[in-house]
Amino acid sequence: MKKRLFASFAATALVVGSLVVASAAAQGATRTVTVWSPYTTGNLDMWNAAIKRVEAANPGLTVTSVGSIDMAKSLAAINAGNGPDISVSNGNGNLGWFCGTGAWQKLNTLIAGPNGIDMKATFNPASVASSISDHNRCALPLYSEVFAFYFNKDLLAKAGFANPPKTTTELLAYSEKLTTFNSDGSIKSAGFVPWAGYYGFDMDSMWLGQMFGAEWYAGNRSSAFASDPKWTKAFTWQHDFIAKVFGGGNFDKGSKLLTKFVAGRGGEWSTDHDFMTGRVAMKWDANWMAPMYCTGDDWTMADKCTSKVNFGITGFPVSPDNLAAYGAGVVGQGQMGISTGSKHVKDAWIVMKALATDTKLAAAWDAANGSPSSLLAKAARPASYPAWYQPIYDVTTNPKSAYHTVKNTGEHLEESMLQNLMASWQAGDTPNIKTALSDLAKKVDQIVVRNK
Amino acid sequence: MSLYAPEKRAEIDLQSKRARRDKKWNNFLHMVGNHSLLIALSTVFILPLYLVVVISLMSKGQAETRSLWPHPFVWHNYLEVFTAVPFLKWTLNTLFVSVMGTIGTVVSSVPPAYVLSRLQWKGRAATFIVILSTMMLPGQVTMIPVYIIFSRLHWIPSFLPLIVPSFFSSAFSIFLLRQFFTSIPDEISDAARIDGCSEFKLMMRIIVPLAKPAISAIALFAFLGSWNDFFGPLLYIVENPNLWTLGIGLNAFQGIHHVNTNMMMTASALFMAPVIIIFFFSQKVFIEGVTLTGVKG
Amino acid sequence: MSLSRLSAAAPFSKKGAAAPPRKKLKVPRLFIFLCLSPWLFGMVFFTAYPMISSFYQSFTKFNLIQPSKWVGLQNFHRMFFEDDDFWKALKNTIWISAISIPLRICFAIFTAWVLTKPKRGRNIYRTIFFLPSMVPAVAGTMAFTYIFNPAYGPVNKMLEAIGIKDPPLWFMDPKWSKWGLILLGLWGIGDTMIIFLAGLLDVPKSLYEAAELEGASGWQSFRYITLPLITPVIFFSGVTGVIGSFQYFTEAYVASGQVNDYSHSMYFYATHIYFSAFKAYEMGYASALAWVLLVITLLCTLVILKTQKRWVHYPNGSLFK
Prior knowledge:
The structure holds 3 protein chains of 3 kinds.
Chain A: H1 2-29, E1 31-36, H2 41-57, E2 61-66, H3 71-80, E3 86-89, H4 95-101, H5 108-112, H6 119-122, H7 125-130, E4 132-133, E5 136-137, E6 140-152, H8 153-158, H9 168-178, E7 180-181, E8 187-192, H10 204-212, E9 217-218, E10 222-223, H11 229-247, H12 251-263, H13 274-277, E11 280-286, H14 290-295, E12 311-314, E13 330-338, H15 345-356, H16 359-369, H17 390-397, H18 413-426, H19 433-450
Parallel strand pairs in A: 1-2, 1-3, 8-11
Antiparallel strand pairs in A: 3-13, 4-5, 6-11, 6-12, 6-13, 7-8, 9-10
Helix pairs in contact in A: 2-15, 2-16, 9-11, 10-11, 11-12, 18-19
Chain B: H1 6-56, H2 60-63, H3 76-84, H4 87-117, H5 124-135, H6 140-152, H7 160-163, H8 171-181, H9 186-194, H10 199-210, H11 212-228, H12 231-236, H13 246-251, H14 263-281, H15 283-292
Chain C: H1 29-57, E1 60-61, E2 69-70, H2 74-82, H3 84-116, H4 122-130, H5 137-147, H6 154-161, H7 177-187, H8 190-201, H9 205-213, H10 218-229, H11 231-245, H12 250-259, H13 269-278, H14 283-311
Antiparallel strand pairs in C: 1-2
């Protein structure tokens, strides 16, 4: 009786075992590549259409596309061991992290290989620069996210300004004129708000640094927060700005008033956004906010703007000693990479390369989302796009536009630490900006060393 | 024959009348004082809830003007919240997790509590102390390896990590039930055993029905704990928006496009409502349950 | 044994009664084991194993993708010497524990005491006081951050109406945000208040009457009768308060998300563990943090336990019967 039990158990195990092996082999044998993206609805349709084109061009290759999965989820799945072959990130702030931890594989060999890509000849300079971390290329760029300077033409004209401010000095002067106060002393409307946490997607400190041309890493090696004097310059400028424009010369007063002003800001994604109601006249902002400012609906790109705010877009104002950089902004990339542990690396590369160089996708995407393509090809520009949006493209192609150097600092820790420093500084809690910056530099270096 | 002369008696009567009147007046003052204090405190406690409800009925414009009464009453907000965000789905998810968690907790906590209180066996005291000490353990110490276990099982994201552990007893529920079980007279068990009743039957048919108040209490606490839980869902279901519970959804509110900020108050009100309603209908159970934690042993 | 002694109508006392010694009752071992098995299984897989595993992990560097790497005491060195956020989180946690635990106990005693006064309507008031502690933490926190918003929240408007000219910015101001959290905690005092209410009601009325006869003032009878007799409740609240406040997470997390808490004024120990483990995926470091938390909590609890003999009066002699 026992013998029979054992025999039947062994037989079942054998059958099950061989089935498992067979299916695993089968999986490896068929050429399937999984792609996870954060896209939904219209964007997902365009994405899937591009994927179909890849399949058509490569018979025998099947691509499974799943949408609505952002990089945080993909990363969690990769960490858990059941990630996709290809995943898409909407920004490149975390490239250093994905690359350094191995979540995305190094592509250097594939890029240089027989089926490779000439990065410089295919993509625009900002894209080439921001898909590399510590000499390792772990991603291919898809489209750009562009951060530029928005200004309210009507409010500026009323104050006597025909053109937007070109330098930080002008920016301060303009703001002094444009800022108004209520009878109780509180701020009624602001010219410009250099404040961490106003509406900045936590990037205010990044933009502040960009205006002054401040470097994040010296020669790509160690943190430049302390060694590059432009950071101190930038923060000192912010300090003076708050004191002069909002506090009548008194920094503490300005800081307190501004804190209250920011607390009362209108909703970020609604038509009572401060920029739309005129509560603020000029601000740093992202390309994806433009459609909302134009028509109040952030999903469509209209030819003519219908909302109350008559706005213009231009490059960031720059520090007077950095005039050559005028016209540039911060440009980051949507990117994709091949996960560690992927069993179909060669096929994933084929898919990824095709998607990154697909001009049809780039043009369609651009037209729908206004995300300038990373491709140099003219065919990647949409057939027509509204004139009021043209400045976004100018910023993208400006050779000085870029994202800062990325290293493996965990989840873009150096960005958040800098942002925290700016917040503490603007609240008056940091007595000495120089020592604070040097502490910050030390910390960032520690993190980079630790994550090697 | 009284000790006192009539005039003296009259004086004493007058004095005691005055004393009684004074005492009554005193008592009255005390009562007014107490009630004023109680009303003041009640106002403080109710105020936030009042504001939530009141702001939830305001138009978007009025909601940001610090007003204290809606002009007009925008009842529509309560409908709009269901279309602006997947509120119904969040509610159903939360309900599902809470109900399953409650069932798990009750089913798995009654038997251990029973054997810890109605039976004598070696190691009983030690086991009880171990259970007590796990109640004092900070969750963080076990949280990460547990997360890794669930991750290797591919249960993330899903409801399983939120529901399955409740089927493996809650130390708090065992503790509370045990306190109650020990108060049931032994004679009842003894009599049943003499009658030849199996231990299992004794537990299920006799003791458990007698412990309805305590079981209701732990069921309620389990349901509430699950309904209000934020950290568990944050860890285990946040990656899949289809599985979001009300807490996660509400927290993510501000980042959702095209949603008015005053709707946050509408959503909060709806999130709080079931708890408040359940509480009103089962106050006694709650309060007795809390006191059952037996501070005095 | 006489069946006639069975009295099913006997009221159950809420105080636990130790079982009288049994004579020769066969212990149903299998039944006991089966009944305990869910707890046992949970104990092994969700408590014991994870504790050992996380202890081991605190000496490793592990990000879930790459294999775990032994790094010895590096995590602890980093924690104490390189991690500013750790010290910030620890400071915040100690600060809020030191302030809110005594405050909550006092407020709980006060509200419970007020509840013992009325003869009629006590239940209504009790319900009102208890209600906020039932509300989901996320909803309560969102409500508080909204109504305490300095620009459009009604609270500051009311403060200005009663004459406070420049009310604080509450959650928007790093110097006030923790006070906002403390107020939120006091609002939910109900669950602590209830056990104090039970404790207060347990004090025999005769003691008060005797004191009144001897001319004791209200304060004196509180100080010398009530207070000593509720010390067991204070002890219990103190211990659970310490354990709970070191794990304080949800309200702080939700509130900081609402206001962009760049200065980490609402960044607590549990927040730091959460971010290290589930945002930065540094499992080894987070485990080290968790074990340090355990040690700190144990120390605090031990201190309270050791001193209990001196200030806690048990009517029946001791805590364990």
